[in-house]
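Write out the 3D structure for:
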Amino acid sequence: MTGPALPASDFRRQRRAGIAGIAVASLLAVVLWLGIERGMAPLPGMDSLGARMLVTLKCFCVAVLFSVVTGVEAVAHERLTSPAFDPLAGFETRRLRINQRYLQNTVEQIIVFAAALFGLAAYCADGSSMRAVVATTVVWIVARAAFWLGYQRSAALRGLGAPGMALSMIVLLYVASRFGDELAGTAGAIAPLALFFAIEAVLFVGTRPQKTG
């Protein structure tokens, strides 16, 4: 069952606010990522693939702690101190619903983030390039926090977390292109990018709401 549709004017207002939030957050995310990647000292002892993967695992653990675990804790604490203690009682506050949606969204996104992070580390050659793994982790965690805090203010402001998912996709596209290049040269590098953007175009057109009447 779906809820009542938003009036067209309200939807457009929220969409404008969401797009503006995404634009500002994206600019800040780029500045933060570049600041860490360029300003951080190279990581020592990164000569072996095993050492680089171990650091990446540690980065992932930190990301889980400050995204998934905090979401679990937020939901658990509210259930512990309210009638929502019984999940079947039907008691929900707006805050609890938002926290549950944040948690579900984060669990979904962290799968994409993990694949991107470890794939990126696989193509890092030394301690200097491993700074990109740290920068990606920090920006992703900050984006998750921005999504959560923005959602508490309004549905439109959850768009503040969009750079986190965008960053994961960009890294995955980079990894897929590098892997394609290894398999089939330039054509192999271009093929996954072309296929992905073709799918995006189909989804963009195919998921538009159909006009009724």
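The domain at 18-163 is CATH 1.20.120 (Four Helix Bundle (Hemerythrin (Met), subunit A)).
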